Amino acid sequence: MMAADLLSAPNGGPGNAASVPDPADWQARAVWLRAELDRHNIAYYVFDRPTIPDAEYDKLFGELQALEAAHPELICADSPTQRVGAAPLGQFPQVTHSVLMLSLNNGFNETDVIAFDRRAREALAKSHSQQEIEYATELKFDGLAINLRYEHGVFTQAATRGDGATGEDVTENVRTVRAIPLRLGTGAPPALIDIRGEVLMYKTDFARLNARQRAAGLKEFANPRNAAAGSLRQLDSRITARRALRFFAYGIGALEGAALPSTHSALLDWYCSMGVPVCIERTTCVGADGLLEYFHNIGQKRAQLPYDIDGVVYKVNAVAEQQKLGYVSRAPRFALAHKFPAEEALTVVQEIEVQVGRTGAITPVARLAPVFVGGVTVTNATLHNEDEVNRKDIRIGDTVIVRRAGDVIPEVVAYVPEQRPQHARRFVMPGKCPVCGSPIVRLEDEAIARCSGGWIKCAAQRKGGLQHFVSRRAMDVEGLGEQLIDQLVDRQIVTTAADLYKLGLAALAALDRMADKSARNVLDALEKSKSTTLARFVYALGIRHVGEATAKALASHFGTLDALLQASKAQLLEVADVGPVVADSIIEFFADPLNIELMAQLRAAGVHWKENSTAEARHRPLLGQTFVLTGSMPTLTRDVAAAMIEAAGGKVAGSVSKKTSVVVAGAEAGSKLAKAQELGITIIDEAGLLDLLQQS
Ligand code: 9MJ
After folding, report:
1. Is the full-model pTM beyond 0.70?
2. What is the largest CA-CA distance in the chain?
3. Which of 33, 176, 289, 344 could form a disulfide with 64 if both were Cys (CB 3.0 to 4.6 A apart)?
């Protein structure tokens, strides 16, 4: 079955009035509701593309629950309603795996990878120079390995790895995990299949869970892995049901009644077609060079991934070659886990200083004895704020654990009590800003202390504001980095963002480490940035509490800068993303004559964007978006769908390109859908399109 089939509505889907079953026809209605819920689950968990808002999902779910409560004979084991958890168990029963659950051999550096590839080539008797091995490459998830058993397509059992031969039966817990299908996608499922993979928790869900634990006075989890393992090994599956767990498949155990695909990558494609989530970062490559390139690429992306990984995994792709290579002591010889270097290290806090951010926020920063963590040398680590320093009781002179959190800003996790020297000094928040000398104030209800100087007095705030203004998601001025901005502010060449557009070649070329050519590039980038969008411009202004999403919402709601400037608090509150704190902050920003002056100067310098009238912005919500229609939709003809899109301001194009905003895919969508997937373009179905139009 194709991915498109999994995403298309079952017969009788919403909008298909002719075939929506009569609610009196309970059985058909329940079947339809289950298929709908499964379809939305797959869109969300397998394709990472939600098709309906949560509230709509909950409504369908509630209807099915009510129906099953009134007609208990309708309940079946694979109904989505059966994911709520069951009465607590006394203990987990043991499960003997039909095929051993193996672990992986580890590699830690290039030499290990080259040796792995050489050994595999030798064992497969490939000649040294020409015959390279094709590998399947994927992420090494940091969760809990699990075996899922499906009999004739129906989920029947889940077991942890345990010692590889015997694990624990966690079927009831796994049943509550929405990412795991209770029935494999349509087609002819195998008589029996053991699907293996990892259960894990996304970083955002982990943060939310810990916030909940904290609020309830319960113990917090140390990391997403522990949270996932703890949630899965709950004797009370009703607790598991409340934890947002995910699953990605990467292996197979027993298989009966179907042929094993001939490559690992084909196995994962098969899983995907059955509605089982697999790693989207997977790929294939050739030889040790290909493996190392993949390792490097994933290393760059690691911080942006929504989950933790502790390395990547290489597997010889051809199953026949895998079988030839076989196993050594419970690990396959055809696979290698290439681990990232440890991301925690011990070092000494030499000093605690404070840094001033663009909003004046004062951040205590630990100056550290240089230490190598996760591939880089770290000399500074954030301590977040004063309360955090006190809570962790970090003192100058302490030996501390430093962690590179998400590759960006390293943080101090904890100090080592046994190694605290007698002379260790406590941190004291200074009374004055170290940059401009203005008083540092901390409002009663805020965790953050701030420099009260504002950007006029405080060079640190000016620098931060300018860095934000030119950043990629704001005005996107390439080549104007932190060091250049520091020089421009320190030499008093630039005070406000408008001054950037007054820069000449001579002034720029005179700066340290600037040649004529790079100065010219910066001027070109500044010129290019003048043509922007209202959303980027609003975001670039750096209004407190107005992030990128809020700026977009404001721009599309008000359409013009003037309409936004004139908006009352009540009008601001009409915008989906805006609450009272944000509204006050926007009003305060626009009430300041200096900000009005800045915006006027920027426009006078040539910064421009396409404005929509407010009415147009409201009534033509798809303005600027290009749609491509493919496949046949359950109710709308292509002409009708196109007319609806155009009436809402969108354009309809015939082919998919980088400029396409959204692809609307119906049944039997072919190459256009594949191209859209390849380019990472948003894909929706008819129901998604109707939702989009309705939201306006
Ligand atoms: C993880 N942990 O992500 C395997 N794994 O394959 C991947 N683990 C594995 N593969 C065979 N991606 C045994 C374990």
Report:
1. no
2. 83
3. 33
